[in-house]
Amino acid sequence: MRMTRTIGKLLIANRGEIAARIIRSAHALGIATVAVYSDPDAGAPYVTLADEAVRLPGAAPADTYLRGDLIIAAAMATGAGAVHPGYGFLSENAAFARACAGAGLIFVGPAPGTIAAMGDKVRAKAMMADAGVPVLPSATIPAEGTGDLTAAAAGVGYPLLVKAAFGGGGRGMRLVGGPAELAGAVASARSEAASAFGDGTVFAERFVADPRHVEVQILGDTAGTVVHLFERECSIQRRYQKIVEECPSPAVDEDLRAALAAAAVTAGQAVGYTGAGTVEFVLDRDGSFWFLEMNTRLQVEHPVTEEVTGLDLVELQLRIAEGEPLPREAREAGISGHAIEVRLYAEDVPAGFIPATGPLHRFTIPETQGIRVDTGFRDGSAVSPHYDAMLAKVIAHGRTRADAARRLARALGQAQIHGVTTNRDLLAGILREPGFLAGATDTGYLTRHDPAALSASAASGAGPARAHALAAALARQARHRAGAPVLGTLPSGWRNVFSAPQRVTYTAAGGTLEVAYRIRGDRVDADVGGVPVQALVHAATPGRVDLEIDGTRRVYRVHQAGTDTYVDASDGSSALSEVPRFGDPRHAAPTGSLLAPMPGLVLRVLTEAGAAVTAGQPLLVLEAMKMEQTVSAPADGVVAELRAKAGEQVSTGQILAVLEG
């Protein structure tokens, strides 16, 4: 007889967009919800979307979202009967799942034994091999000591990947081309794995050059039924982290789909899987595939499966947790159309995907037909250095893959994202790139296609940048006229005898643009960055400029935030910073200053004041979002000043050290 348990109140042991996503599905089922939040997340939208919320004092994940004892205490205090872990944090922590059961709470996920078995990547590969699922050659490297690294690696074969045994998401992973690189890669991977997952055990696995990363969504109920919900293609990655996902895969035909699905179901059955999980494979060009890992949780990219099947995976998780059998619509699901998801990150792509933090002055992505936006941010939110820098998942569903890609690229272009640097231009560039549109995607995509060039292909060029600067200047003068205490009806820049044009200078991604302009009725004669521009002004307000240049009319949306001006139009977006007429020399950094390239924690200081250093020598190591960034000497010199110390939190642009030649 099947046991059923009713969930009346659900605590979500997570944050941001996934917390909001789970809350909505729970509410649709009539389930009350409890959120937990750290101090930096006190103003996050998901906190008030839930019926109740409990504070987790502190900021760092180790003090908040990784504190299973505090989360269980919050559930008990609020009368929650179940806990949904989301993804990341405690979602694949077997000890936490056991603790929930020990407290009488329903853990929305698989059994603790399943989580433990699949969380140990080495053990998981052995179990899959025993079940007949194809696996790659591998060897374990213990967390302590060096062991015989050379022998272990030789048994696997080069090239190989050093990977974290108890984690994922690209953290604790290093590519090794030959024996000379092995020891350094193992040390670095161990350090990152220990920081991210609390265990520095790593293993070596045969590396398949530029495979596709294809995964299969599975569902299992408490009666032992395991089904698949087709595959997802997740090959386009940076730093081994996915940024573009789609369903179905453009490389998978019906025969290959059946083989992948059968292997995934076999994997699920081998561990008695219950709930929603994902079996990941690497797919070679000849159609051969091998087991990579099993994620015993909901995946970040689950929306693309939902869009093509019409199913709500969170709802199914909750129903399975209550003891219900898989419904017919899950057992007999089909694929309708095509869905593509992109992960919008706060990061600087040309600088090497360095995370960005700070306030989001405006954050709007229109949810037009076929577009879905899952986000944990809104206007006024702040991007914290303590957590993952993903701002949103933007998903498009279309009749065909081409329809979905075109729809998604347009949605990104219409977004207003003001305050932090993002990877939006990279994502739009990928979606319009001919190779991507032809389905030529694999894990080497961003090696063959320079991310900076892809970003530039979607960014505003020189012409749009000049138009945006002019629009910003006209919105500025409209704001000044609207706030003028006297003679507010006079035209901007009016003189009895014309002497000189009005001027304003902006800095932008491409450098500095000086705008000199004179308004004559509805016409503007301007010089922008040394290029003459004549424009017809149909309307100009502080927030909207309707401008016609060279016979083409566009509406420019202008948003002022302090000294920064953001311009969005059909030809792209620009972030401009007004240059004060008289700068303050006290704010200038000393010559030879090394500035923090990103916000983060100073993990290690590798030099000292007075030390002689050579070009390229590592001086400090920063950590942000569990990723390490080395700051090296740009030239030979002497460390005149060392202003940062290990354990210190630094912000972008902060002086770390000063070198003298």
Q: What are the main properties of this structure?
A:
661 residues; alpha+beta; 8-stranded antiparallel β-sheet; 8-stranded antiparallel β-barrel; globular
Report on this structure.
It is built from 18 helices and 39 strands. Helix 4 packs antiparallel against helix 5 (about 110-120), helix 13 runs antiparallel to helix 14 (about 425-430) and helix 14 (about 425-430) packs across helix 17 (about 450-460). The termini are far apart. The strands form 9 sheets. Strands 14-13-10-11-12-15-22-20 form an 8-stranded antiparallel β-sheet, with helices on both faces. An 8-stranded antiparallel beta barrel has the order 24-25-26-27-28-29-30-31. It has a 5-stranded parallel β-sheet with strand order 3-2-1-4-5, sandwiched between helices. With about 650 residues, the protein is of the alpha+beta class.
Name the beta content range. Answer: 25-35%
The share of residues in helices is 25-40%
Weakly predicted, low-confidence segments: none
Overall pLDDT score: 93
Rg computed from alpha carbons, rounded to a whole number of angstroms: 27 Å
The helix count comes to 18
Shape category: globular
Q: What's the story with the biggest beta sheet? A: 8 strands, antiparallel
User: How would you write the strand order of the largest sheet?
Assistant: 14-13-10-11-12-15-22-20
